[in-house]
Design brief:
The complex is a heterodimer of chains A (about 150) and B (about 80).
Chain A lengths: L3 E4 L11 E8 L1 H9 L9 E6 L7 E3 H6 L3 E11 L2 E13 L8 E9 L9 E3 L1 H4 L2 E6 L4 E6 L1
Parallel strand pairs in A: 3-8, 4-7
Antiparallel strand pairs in A: 1-10, 2-3, 2-6, 4-8, 5-6, 6-7, 9-10
Chain B lengths: L7 H18 L3 E5 L2 E2 L7 H12 L6 E4 L7 E3 L1
Antiparallel strand pairs in B: 1-2, 1-3
């Protein structure tokens, strides 16, 4: 299978970095159990995610997590960023990568944090997902290719 | 009356037991709802979550927390 290709411009400092579409939802078991009780969940929606080798884990916008009713499993977890320390929530979620051919990641512990003033993306794909892939950066060609390793 | 913060009661149970659990279950995952703790402890987050789902359902959140003596702080760049 051909690798999935993402385009970005490393020569443009305003470019946020390589991004792709992801769909973050509750796990299939969570949705099934909830629907049996009559609970409703929003339809899946693709959001933009940054491929970030600098993050040990995947993070979604806390606003997105609340709006999409992700099942929360932890709160008040500290993380450190260059902007200072902050506290994350944690959610159990499935993550898929539409139109990429990449396999869905199931029952992942996803962190939720505020993406203050971030205009480009509302999710960071961290090393917990990247470790499953073969990712190659081609700077001069302005592309990144991804395939399951 | 103000609403309790999410998982506040479960986090209190966790903190009360952290030291004891750290001695025997370091690095494992514990599942808690209110004062109820699922046993045994779990090696993986997804296994712990599924066990919590089976036991507690989805009506209310339950805590899935990895056991450390001191909470690690990971750096995100």
């Amino acid at each position: 299978m051909a690798p999935f290709e993402v385009f970005w411009n490393p020569f443009d400092q305003a470019d946020p970095g390589p991004c792709m579409k992801v769909v973050v939802t509750n796990t299939a078991e969570t949705i099934e159990a909830g629907r049996l009780l009559g609970l409703e969940y929003p339809a899946p929606q693709a959001i933009t995610a940054l491929l970030d080798t600098g993050s040990p884990f995947t993070i979604v916008s806390r606003t997105f997590a609340k709006n999409w009713k992700l099942f929360q499993t932890n709160a008040g977890v500290p993380i450190r960023t260059m902007g200072g320390d902050c506290l994350c929530d944690e959610y159990c979620a499935d993550i898929s990568f539409p139109d990429s051919g990449l396999a869905c990641v199931q029952s992942l512990r996803v962190r939720g944090a505020d993406f203050n003033r971030e205009p480009f993306y509302s999710c960071i794909i961290g090393r917990d997902i990247l470790k499953n892939w073969d990712v190659r950066f081609y700077g001069k060609a302005k592309s990144v290719t991804i395939k399951c390793s | 009356m103000p609403l309790a913060a999410p998982l506040e009661a479960e986090l209190e149970v966790f903190e009360r037991n952290r030291e004891e659990w750290s001695r025997e279950h370091l690095g494992k995952y514990v599942v808690i709802q209110d004062g109820r703790v699922l046993e045994p402890f779990f090696d993986a987050y997804d296994d712990a979550f599924r066990a919590g789902l089976r036991e507690f359902g989805v009506n209310r959140s339950f805590l899935v927390r990895q056991i450390w003596i001191k909470e690690p702080i990971y750096f995100v760049a």
